[in-house]
Design goal:
InterPro entries: GYD/TTHA1554. The protein is α+β, with helices and mostly antiparallel strands. It is 41% helix and 29% strand. It has helices at 11-19, 25-35, 64-74, 89-102, and strands at residues 2-9, 39-46, 52-58, 78-86.
């Protein structure tokens, strides 16, 4: 399952990065995600809302995604973290087919 994690670096993390500006945060992310049985798809630095990151990764166990997210927060690395489940077009096609099957079983308010 694919996930997108976004967040801003904490002041503590930014100070550590400035002390060692050649630090490889992508390698740190890769190591964490691979330890969870996953794969880093891509990682970007973002400037919106403060210096931060956008990481797209794939993990076979969906419970690992919030574990990864939570670890980055509790370690003091990121704040304002958002974790979003991403769906492939094939997965969305299945979702739509399931919704079509269920449509007649649902009664909206006022009906």
């Amino acid at each position: 399952m694919h996930f997108c994690l976004t967040g801003q670096y904490t002041s503590r993390a930014l100070n550590a990065i400035l002390e060692n500006p050649t630090t490889d945060r992508q390698e740190a992310a890769r190591k964490l995600i691979e330890a969870a049985g996953g794969k880093l798809i891509s990682m970007y630095s973002v400037a919106a809302d403060g210096p931060g990151v956008l990481v797209i990764f794939d993990v076979p166990d969906p419970s690992m995604a919030p574990a990864i997210s939570g670890l980055t927060v509790t370690a003091g690395t990121l704040q304002n973290v958002k974790l979003t489940r991403l769906f492939t077009q094939d997965e969305i096609k299945q979702v739509r087919q399931n919704a079509a099957k269920l449509r007649s079983s649902y009664s909206p308010p006022g009906s």
